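tool_log.txt
---
The assistant was asked to compare two proteins side by side. It first ran the structure predictor on the initial sequence, then on the second. Raw inputs and outputs are pasted verbatim so the downstream comparison step can read them without reformatting.
(1)
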Amino acid sequence: MSELDVTKDLKLPNTRTSMQEEFEKLGIEKGMIVIVHSSLSAFGWVCGGPVAVIQALIDAVGKEGTIIMPSQTADNSDPSGWQKPPVPKEWWPIIREEMPAFDPRVTPTRGMGKIVETFRAYPHVMRSSHPIYSFVGWGKYAPYILSEQPLEAGFGINSPLGKIYELDGHILLLGVTHDSNTSLHLAEHAIPNRVKVKKGTAMLENNERVWKMYEEIVYDDEPFEDLGKDFEKNYSVIEGTVGKASCKLMKQRPLIDFARNWLIDFY
């Protein structure tokens, strides 16, 4: 759909002011801790694009609030596991040798969308240190939430996801579904006897670039959409729209508690 078609599809433009009002109508409150997953295109035409969405979110949670977004860099991983797209085997050692080390200040996100990539460079936003599964955050609790993220458990209990759980934060899905709900990876750590595999990544150790090998579980978002639908049958999820985006707001902790049992039964 062209930009002209998008504008024709709206009576009025989406703006920072209109989206703040809609976020608040959805249930976003001052002081709230929110992990956000988003699709800019789902909003329709936005005056100011991703910057306006971010400003509206900040306005909605206020100076006492906290906004977290996943800022993953899946391309900084071992090329032997790449599928979208795969690369020739003879390239693998070259990539392991030459991939730039993850730098939270400059390494771009991959496949996370325009809102996250814009938020990454937004004033007073900080980023966690995990070379593949980093998070970015703004607000009161961002320094604590992003302060620790073990390499071997990027989505584990001591990760930013675990700290949001501890602080009883919320999940906000903006134009996306549960298959984009990163918090559900936290629940995967409850699955008994989950097989760990060797992973690799380029990172800094003592200010030197190294190719680091480590072991971690294989994260699998394939069942997340069905999991989320089952959760919504039994628990409170606020649904609404911001612009043209279908949105959902929910507490993270009840979802993770439900998901842990659901995934154990699934596997």
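(2)
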Amino acid sequence: MHNLLLEIELFRNWAKKGDKSFGEWEIEYFHWDRIYHYINMLIVATPVQKWNSNLLNEFLYILARDNECEIILEALIDIPNQLLSIAEHSLFFPDHNARWQVAYGLGEIDGNNQEIKTFLTHFLLDECEYVRRRAAFAYKKKGF
């Protein structure tokens, strides 16, 4: 966990200095491979329920920043119980780029359909139109 938090801090420092004048600025970061490595280690080895609030917030931050490549989202989709646990914490996360990815991901997994439906229903009411659209897509895909 410490290594992941360090990598996210390095990303944050880079982002402060980076050119954000174009929409996909995050993909210019050279060390996503290290972030992905530590993300995978974390989500395979440690249930979300054991994460502290700082780790949860940093995870959701870097998930939001990975909104073009969606590699972190794909890793979560591969471990549905982790995605469901993240979904609970993402509902009120301030960055819509994390919320829409989670909403989309919920449409891609098998699992507790009632829990998925509850989360998607919440996302359907999100203040951000793109979150609502991704939630509607997932809702329909799940057959709700």
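---
observation on (2): The chain has eight helices and no strands. The radius of gyration is 15 Å.
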